[in-house]
Amino acid sequence: MDQKNNKQNLMDKITALCKRRGFIYPGSEIYGGLQGTWDYGPLGTLLKKNLKDIWWKDAVEKRDDMVGVDAAIMMHPKAWEASGHVEAFTDPLVECKICHERFRADEKEKVLEHIKTHDGKKVDWTNPQKFNLLVKAYLGVIEGKQSELYLRGEITNGAQVNFRNVLDSTRIKIPFGIAQIGKAFRNEITPGNFTFRSREFEQMETQYYIKPDKKEGEKWFEYWKDNRMNFYLSLGIKKENLRFREHREEEKAHYAIAATDIEYNAPFGWSEFMGIHNRGDWDLSRHQKYSGQKMTYKDEVAGEEYVPWDIETSAGVDRSILFLLIDSYEEDDPSTGSGQGKRVVLKLNPKLAPYKAAVFPLLANKEDLVKTAKDVYYSLKKDINGMVAFDARGNIGKRYYSQDEIGTPYCITVDFQTLEDETVTVRNRDTMKQERIKIEKLAEFLNPKID
Ligand code: ATP
Question: β-strand 355-361 against 387-390: which pairing, if any?
Answer without folding.
Answer: parallel
